Amino acid sequence: MKLSSPQLLLDAQAALGEGPAWDFARKRLYWVDIYAGHLHIYDPKTNLDEKIEVDAPLGCAAPTRSGNLILGLRNSIAALSLDTVKLTILASPEARLPGNRFNDGKCAPDGRFLAGTMDNSETEASGALYSYSPDGTLKTLVAGVRISNGLAWSPDYKTMYYIDTPTFNVMAYDYDVASGEIGNPRVAVSIPPRLGFPDGMTSDMQGRLWIALWGGAAVTVWDPASSQLLESISIPAKNVTSCVFGGENGTDLFVTSARKGLSPADLAEYPLTGGLFRIQTNVEGMPTFVFGDSMLDI
């Protein structure tokens, strides 16, 4: 692999920068600052970053076929019109769990939106991973989750990878694109705790997993078939939260980070934490999939 040094695109100083998603149609990067409730729309050509406030914790955002977005908010899945900035609540699976919030999420290859929740205090296993279909069907895929995080798929779409951060494990599941059901859970990768906590992730067309490490100042590359660490890419940010492939050729890796929980000494050592970074590669990444839209009349 050929990898450039990480380039700081935005010194955003995000408290909890997360959830990068590349919109291939618009050539834009969406990312969120969760607690601030900010949706960011970044244009790599102009280096302009537009910010939309949604007035609620915003865990994740994903593009849709119509050009709008589907979001995971505090306890709801919602649609956002980028033209009118109108929010439409689609489902509220955890309205009775005020201590929970949505965290990471993205669309599956079949057009469903998968998003997970977590206990905001990070102590109880009260979260879950949900699947929301374009026909409005909501399913619970995984229950008893503490910090729902990274999602990725294999190049043949038959395997879904999923991270519940405190387990330090990347789980693999058989994925049925027709039904959206998962099965046959097994551990694909176990992250040594000394490296940091596994957070968001993406995959490439060779089937490798690119995993951001909270507290580890790195993005790591793993072979899920052998569970082997292939590469560790140092990032000048202490808490690295997620990554996604995008850019003109789908070979740029965009990386988010967070200042949450860092001490003054940490910030003195890693002053760019909270920034948005880019690594140029010769690796073709898996695309950001889009929501199928049939229920999104906005």
Please state the structural category. mainly beta
Number of domains: 1
Task: Enter the CATH topology name.
Answer: Neuraminidase
Tell me the span between the first and last alpha carbons: 42 Å
Radius of gyration: 17 Å
CATH architectural grouping = 6 Propeller
Instruction: Estimate percent helicity.
Output: under 10%
Order of helices and strands: EEEEEEEEEEEEEEEEEEEEEEEHE
Helix/strand layout:
Blueprint: E1 7-10, E2 17-23, E3 28-33, E4 38-43, E5 48-53, E6 60-63, E7 69-72, E8 77-80, E9 87-91, E10 100-107, E11 113-119, E12 127-132, E13 138-145, E14 148-153, E15 159-164, E16 169-175, E17 182-190, E18 197-203, E19 209-214, E20 218-223, E21 228-234, E22 239-246, E23 252-258, H1 264-269, E24 276-280
Antiparallel strand pairs: 1-24, 2-3, 3-4, 4-5, 6-7, 7-8, 8-9, 10-11, 11-12, 12-13, 14-15, 15-16, 16-17, 18-19, 19-20, 20-21, 22-23, 23-24
Structural description of this entry:
With about 300 residues, the protein is mainly beta. The protein has a single domain (about 5-280), classed as TolB, C-terminal domain (Neuraminidase), CATH 2.120.10.30. It contains one helix and 24 strands. It has one helix at about 265-270, and strands at about 5-10, 15-25, 30-35, 40-45, 50-55, 60-65, 70, 75-80, 85-90, 100-105, 115-120, 125-130, 140-145, 150-155, 160-165, 170-175, 180-190, 195-205, 210-215, 220-225, 230-235, 240-245, 250-260, 275-280. The strands form six sheets. The chain has a four-stranded antiparallel β-sheet, with no helix packed on it. It has a four-stranded antiparallel β-sheet with strand order 2-3-4-5, with no helix packed on it. The longest helix is centred in the C-terminal third of the chain and has 6 residues, at about 265-270.
